[in-house]
Amino acid sequence: AYLQNAARPRQLPIVTELMDVRMLEVFLEYDVDVIQIGARNMQNFDLLKEVGKVNKPVILKRGLSATLSEWLMAAEYIAAGGNHNIIFCERGIRTFETAYRNVLDITAIPALKRETHLPVIVDPSHAGGKAWMVPSLALAAVAAGADGLLVEMHPNPCEAWCDADQALTPQELTTLMSSLRGVAAAVGRTL
User: Fold this and answer.
1) 2-185 in CATH: which number?
2) What is the residue extent of each domain of the chain?
3) How far is residue 171 CA from its own chain's centroid?
4) Beta bridge mates, 37
5) Contacts of 113 (CB under 8 A, 6+ apart)
6) Could you tell me which residues come within 8 angstroms of residue 107 by beta carbon, excluding any fewer than 6 positions away?
7) pTM, two decimal places
8) One digit per residue, pLDDT tens: the chain, 191 residues?
9) Distance of alpha carbon 111 from its chain centroid, rounded?
C-alpha cells in the first residue's frame, strides 16, 4: 500500500523483490508492475516456477556465485511456466577480493546478449557496495551494452535504513545521468 500511494500519483511503476512464494498473491493484489528475484533466490526453483505462471515482468538477479549457464537455466524455470518477460540483472559475483563487495562481471553483458534475446540490466550499486564506485561501474555497463541500470538513490544516504553506503544523492544521480548520455552517444546508443 505504501508503494502504491507513493508511485501511482506520480505514474511510476512499482518494482519490488519477492522473497517468499507465499507473498506472491499480495504482489498481485497490489498490482506490482515488476517482480524482482534477488541473487539469493536465483535458484529457489519453487519461487521461479510460481512467477513463471504470472503475467508480470521478472527481474532475475544473478546468484552470488552463479555461472552464466546456471543463470540461464534459472530463467528457464520461469519461462517453462509461460512467462517469457524476463530481465537478467548482473549485480556482481563473489570472488576472493575483499576491497569491494562484489566483482561486476561486465563480460556477462555481451555473453548473455549472444545467448538470449532477453534484456540485460546491471546493478552497479550492489556490485561495488560504495556510492563512489557506482558511476564508474554504471558507465562501463552502458558502454558494454547493458539495456538498463538499477541505481540506488536516497535524498540523504546517511539516513537510509539499508544500503546507505551505496546510495547516490539526487545530485549525484543527475550528474551520473549526464555522463551516461555521453557514453551512450559515444557507442551509438541513446538513453
Assistant:
1) 3.20.20.70
2) 2-185
3) 22
4) 60
5) 120, 145
6) none
7) 0.95
8) 899 999 999 999 999 999 999 999 999 999 999 999 999 999 999 999 999 999 999 999 999 999 999 999 999 999 999 999 999 999 999 999 888 889 999 999 999 999 999 999 999 999 999 999 999 999 999 999 999 999 999 999 999 999 999 999 999 999 999 999 999 999 999 98
9) 17
126 close to 166: Cβ distance less than 8 angstroms: yes
Coil, helix or strand for 70?
A: helix
Residue type, 178: S
Tell me the CB-side half-sphere exposure of residue 143, using CA atoms within 13 A: 12
Q: Which 3-state string (H, E, C) describes 134-185?
A: HHHHHHHHHHCCCCEECCCECCCHHHCCCCHHHCECHHHHHHHHHHHHHHHH
